[in-house]
Design brief:
The protein has helices at residues 28-40, 43-49, 91-98, 111-117, 159-163, 167-201, 211-234, 239-250, and strands spanning 2-4, 54-61, 66-69, 84-87, 102-105, 122-125, 141-143, 152-158, 205-207. The chain is α/β, with parallel strands linked by helices.
């Protein structure tokens, strides 16, 4: 079984980036089930998975990204302009630029050192991942309640192996995969809340967006999604179709 993040192989799994766009979802399980539907029955099943001759077993989406760093107080989204924010690449770069900040691509394990050295001013990622990278002590200022994107990890096997399995085994794997999706998204939700409390106990000051900021960012998110879809359409990929399908699945 292969664990793969589409963000790191956008040339091969370009349309999966749709689940990493900003403003798409606030509930991890809702985003997870929408992506899974596309990966098993929708457009992604034909392109990102079928096109690479792999079959998804289960997926993991992370909680909506937040900005967190050690030195820059945040009282509005305007305070994000001009700072350097760690990016995982792909559509996240578009989001950071739309906020008026500069994306700097770093891996998760490089984030703490990047914050300490000033390579980046803030991290953009889920609260649930911060403890593993020992970022809690550096989480002095940040946002909570925003939806700056997400991160997708897929777990797949080759079509050759899948096609060689009996129908009984396929059904068992499909059932186990769906159960794993639900277990993981619920666990991420719990870890997210636990991480917020732990950082607040350490004195972190979080900005919770006002209705005005939320409305302004909603327009920004729509623009980022449209730009993402157009860039893919221009490359002969089905960006607009993927965006429309993901929104449709989220609405069900």
């Amino acid at each position: 079984m292969w664990a793969m993040s589409p963000a790191y192989v956008t040339d091969k799994m370009a349309l999966s980036d749709v689940a990493m766009l900003p403003g798409m979802f606030t509930e991890v399980c809702k985003g997870t089930h929408a992506y899974w539907k596309m990966a098993t029955e929708g457009l992604l099943a034909k392109t990102d998975f079928g096109g690479n001759k792999i079959h998804p077993i289960f997926v993991a989406l992370l909680p909506p990204y937040q900005v967190i760093g050690p030195h820059h107080p945040i009282k509005s989204f305007e305070d994000l302009k001009g700072i350097k924010i760690r990016s995982s690449g792909g559509s996240v770069d578009l989001t950071i630029r739309a906020l008026g900040a500069t994306p700097v691509k770093l891996t998760g394990p490089e984030t703490r050192e990047g914050l300490e050295r000033g390579t980046i001013d803030a991290n953009l990622g889920p609260n649930s991942s911060l403890k593993g990278y020992d970022i809690f002590p550096l989480a002095k200022y940040g946002t909570q309640g925003a939806s700056f994107g997400s991160f997708v990890v897929t777990y797949s096997i080759s079509d050759r192996v899948w096609n060689g399995l009996s129908d009984e085994v396929k059904q068992a794997l499909a059932k186990a995969g769906e159960e794993t999706n639900t277990h993981l998204c619920q666990a991420h939700e719990r870890e997210n809340l636990s991480a917020i409390k732990a950082m607040e106990d350490l004195g972190a000051d979080f900005y919770h967006p006002t209705d005005a900021d939320k409305q302004a960012f909603a327009a920004t998110a729509t623009s980022v999604a449209a730009q993402w879809a157009k860039e893919l359409d221009d490359r002969g990929k089905q960006g607009s179709a993927a965006l429309a399908e993901f929104k449709s699945e989220l609405g069900k």
